[in-house]
Specification:
Elements: H1 13-17, E1 23-24, H2 30-43, E2 48-53, H3 55-64, E3 69-71, E4 82-87, E5 95-100, H4 106-118, E6 122-126, H5 134-138, H6 141-144, E7 149-154, H7 160-165, E8 172-176, H8 188-195, E9 203-204, H9 210-229, H10 237-241
Parallel strand pairs: 1-2, 5-6, 5-7, 7-8, 8-9
Antiparallel strand pairs: 2-4, 3-4
Length: 242
């Protein structure tokens, strides 16, 4: 069976928009996932990554691509749906901060981390600094201010997003997670709180969408990088005189 029997790969996506076509794991067989990864890797048009791969799919991918990187690592979260990076772009100088309110948010944070890694963008994970112990977050503010973009990952009521939005000037992309008790409603409470944040200019993606948050960060970084590389116009003598 060829991939054309079940998928139409968009090989031009990365050259066209600067973002890879991820292979979304759920709903695909292990064989389909591996076949798609092999085809995309052979084309060499950009990063190759699989999102939300289950344990069986991860094992199949590692057999086919022994050098692949898995986020989160199997030693940390052996049963979690994982992002598998098969081919990554060269490293870039930009860096994204991924800030989680709790340890339980790390699986979603790692989806963002894997996506950034595939595109050659560095990241630092700052974990478990939610507002229930706000001193933890405040002790990291100077570090957080140094990132090009900040991704905030939080469940419960998602309050860390508004707090950070009032303390730093960096672009912030908030990811609500389905973590929390009772009225958390599977991440809906965090998402609504983030959307209603009184801190202006915060962007919000859907529940548990670490991949989408990373793609948003990459778009910002790509635009800033392109602006910095544009040649500066040299003023003419007449312009100087005016």
């Amino acid at each position: 069976m060829s991939t054309g029997d079940f998928a139409e790969v968009d090989h031009g996506r990365f050259p066209r928009i600067g973002l890879p076509e991820a292979i979304y794991g759920p709903g695909k067989t292990e064989n389909q996932i591996v076949q798609l990864a092999m085809e995309m890797d052979a084309q060499g048009q950009g990063p190759v990554l699989v999102t939300r791969a289950n344990s069986a799919a991860v094992a199949s991918l590692l057999r086919a691509f022994p050098g692949a990187m898995v986020y989160p690592g199997r030693d940390q979260f052996p049963d979690a749906l994982a992002t598998v990076v098969i081919a990554a772009n060269d490293n870039r100088p930009e860096k994204v901060g991924i800030v989680t309110a709790g340890t339980t948010d790390l699986v979603v944070a790692n989806e963002a981390a894997g996506t950034l890694s595939a595109c050659g963008i560095g990241f630092d994970l700052i974990c478990d600094v939610g507002v229930a112990g706000i001193h933890r977050l405040l002790s990291k503010i100077d570090q957080i201010r140094k990132f090009d973009v900040v991704i905030v990952v939080a469940g419960m009521e998602g309050a860390i997003t508004s707090v950070l939005g009032g303390l730093i000037s960096n672009p912030i992309i908030a990811v609500p997670t389905s973590t929390g008790y009772g009225a958390s409603q599977g991440g809906q409470t965090a998402m609504m709180a983030m959307l209603a944040s009184c801190a202006p200019g915060v962007s919000v993606v859907g529940v548990d969408n670490g991949f989408g948050a990373a793609c948003g960060a990459i778009r910002i970084i790509n635009l800033l990088s392109a602006k910095h590389q544009e040649p500066q116009e040299v003023p003419t003598v007449a312009e100087h005189q005016n």
